[in-house]
Protein: DUF2149 domain-containing protein
Amino acid sequence: MRFLDEDEELNPIVSAVNLIDVFLVIIAALLIAIAQNPLSTFSADNVTVVKNAGKPNMEIIVKEGKEIKQYKSNDTIGSGEGLRAGIAYKMADGSFVYVPEDNKAPQTGGKL
Structure:
C-alpha cells in the first residue's frame, strides 16, 4: 500500500483541486456582478441610463420592468408642429411652476 503513504505534495490532483476552487470563486464573483448590473433582466427596477450626455453620439437606455428601449441621437435638433400648452416660470428657489393656458383663449399653432 505504497499509494496511501505517498506525500500530498507530490500528488498532482491536489493542485488541480485548488485551481478548480479558484475558478469557482471567480465565476461566483462574475455572476454577482452581472446580477447587480442596473440593466440586468433579473432586477425589476425602472432604470434610465444616459451615455455620452450632451455629445452627438448620445444614447438613452430606458428599462421598464423587463422591457428595454434604446434611443440614439441622430445629431439633429427636434422640431415639430404643436400648440402652446402653457407657461413655465422658474422661481427664485430654483423650482418651476407650470401655468396651463386657458382653454377659452385662442391658440395659435407654431413650430416647437
